[in-house]
Design brief:
alpha+beta; Aminopeptidase; eight-stranded mixed beta sheet; 10 strands; globular
C-alpha cells in the first residue's frame, strides 16, 4: 500500500486483509472510535466527525508508520470488503517497547477475527519487523482482551499506569523465540 508516496507492507490471512490505516478509512475510524466497546475499554479520543477522524489518522497514525514502517492497520474481511476493526503495533508514549492492540466493531466480535489479525501481526512483528519483544496493555475488566492476549502467548507481568492516566492497566509481554 502506498501512503504519501511510500510503500508499506500489508498482510493477508485466510479471511482478512490487514493494511495500514489510511485517510480513506476516516468514516470507519470515526465509527470505531465512537462505538460503546471502544469507549468502555480504550477510551474517548474526542473524534466527533469524519473530518476529525481523517485528521486523527494523519496526525496520530501516519507519523509512527512513516518513522518505523509499521503502525495501526485496518482489518478488512475478504469475503465482502467490510472494514471490521483495527489491529496495530504501537510505539506508545509512556510504554517501553512496542505493544500490540486490537479493536473490532461490536457486530464482528466473537468470530475469531481479532485473534486472526493479531496473530498475523504478532508473527510479522517478530519476523518482518525484527522486534525482540511484543507487549500489550488492557484494563482488568476487559476479560475478552485478556483471554485473547493469553491465547496469543503473551503473559501477564505486572500492573502499570501510563503517564497522565489514573487507571491501572495489566501489562503483558512475549519475547521472540529466535
Amino acid at each position: 500500500m502506498i501512503i504519501d508516496g511510500k510503500k508499506y507492507s500489508f498482510f493477508e490471512t485466510e479471511r482478512l486483509l490487514i493494511r495500514p490505516c489510511a485517510a480513506e478509512d476516516a468514516e470507519f475510524i470515526h465509527a470505531l472510535l465512537n462505538c460503546n466497546t471502544w469507549l468502555k475499554y480504550i477510551g474517548e479520543r474526542n473524534v466527533k466527525s469524519v473530518e476529525e477522524a481523517e485528521t486523527y489518522i494523519k496526525e496520530k497514525m501516519y507519523p509512527q508508520l512513516k518513522r518505523l514502517g509499521f503502525g495501526n492497520y485496518t482489518v478488512i474481511r475478504n469475503t465482502d470488503g467490510a472494514k471490521i476493526g483495527t489491529c496495530g503495533l504501537h510505539d506508545r508514549e509512556g510504554l517501553e517497547g512496542v505493544d500490540i492492540g486490537f479493536a473490532l466493531l461490536p457486530k464482528f466480535e466473537k468470530q475469531g477475527y481479532a485473534f486472526e489479525a493479531a496473530n498475523e501481526l504478532l508473527k510479522q512483528g517478530f519476523n518482518l519487523f525484527r522486534l525482540k519483544q511484543l507487549n500489550a496493555i488492557t484494563l482488568p475488566i476487559n476479560k475478552s482482551s485478556r483471554k485473547l492476549l493469553e491465547k496469543l502467548g503473551l503473559q501477564f507481568e505486572k500492573m502499570i499506569n501510563l503517564p497522565n492516566d489514573k487507571e491501572k492497566l495489566m501489562f503483558y509481554s512475549l519475547r521472540a523465540t529466535s
